[in-house]
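ERR on first pass: missing label on line 2. Operator R.T. fixed the label and resubmitted. Corrected input:
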Amino acid sequence: MLRLGFVGTGTLAAAVIDGLQETQGTRCRILVSPRSEAVSRALAERHPNVERAASNAEVVEGADVVFLGVRPPQLEEGTAGLPFRAGQTVVSFLAGVPHALVAEKVAPAVAVRVNPLPPIRLRKGPVVMYPDNPVVAELFGGLGDLIVASKESDLANIAIASALMSSHFALQNRMIGWLVSRDMAGDSAAAYVRSMFAGLAAIGLDALAKGETVDPAHHETPGGLNWRGRQFLTGEGWFDDVERALDAIEAHSLRLKSGG
Ligand SMILES: NC(=O)c1ccc[n+]([C@@H]2O[C@H](COP(=O)([O-])OP(=O)(O)OC[C@H]3O[C@@H](n4cnc5c(N)ncnc54)[C@H](OP(=O)(O)O)[C@@H]3O)[C@@H](O)[C@H]2O)c1
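pass 2 clean. output:
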């Protein structure tokens, strides 16, 4: 029986634990740190294999794989004096914290950075890992699409690209609102738009699995409605704005890192 431990039992840890129940539930026992009392108690009530530990030290002592789910500024306080040991694997969820710093805090355990996104709760979406680690790859198998980053800077860049997630929902909501303004029932409009994007996402992943790219021109008829839509948005600079937004988010993030 694999023993998993969570130091920092917040939003992401809860989503991962819920997801793991589906894929590893019968194969693992999970110890969670007592902080964030409501979340840790709810997890222990919801899942028979989840237990609330008395302290962070108890979590680390009792786990083969430890997950760090505290926020970046809480790394020092959350790991200080904990009995990490050789042969143990520590999965860090901490965004923007250099790998070398986490590795130093959890030595002699082996540190691995994993970046899941909220859809992991539904066992969907990308899970980025750095560096490659077979124990962690097996744990996250079935919890989404596992992507092994070849270098640490990829993690910083995917964080920037992921900053358009909420804009994706804003786009969907505008489309739904437009349909409603044309007198379509709200629930039907939402079902249509959200299902359409889910179907398109499935086409993209299918193409990826076949080693193909997705060419927008293959998803429109010249002179047709989709062609018109893309021509209009291209002419308005909408796709250039997407790149400009990512550049602006990157610049902001670099300013924060340099203390500016
Ligand atoms: N949320 C996401 O989608 C996402 C995606 C990728 C990466 N991440 C990373 O995942 C980490 C967690 O994010 P989150 O959204 O889950 O944050 P969160 O909900 O604030 O969870 C942080 C948890 O850490 C606990 N904590 C703080 N100090 C602690 C300590 N010394 N010992 C034990 N527990 C302590 C907090 O407990 P209290 O409530 O009692 O303070 C809270 O339960 C962050 O580092 C973030 O960068 C998150």
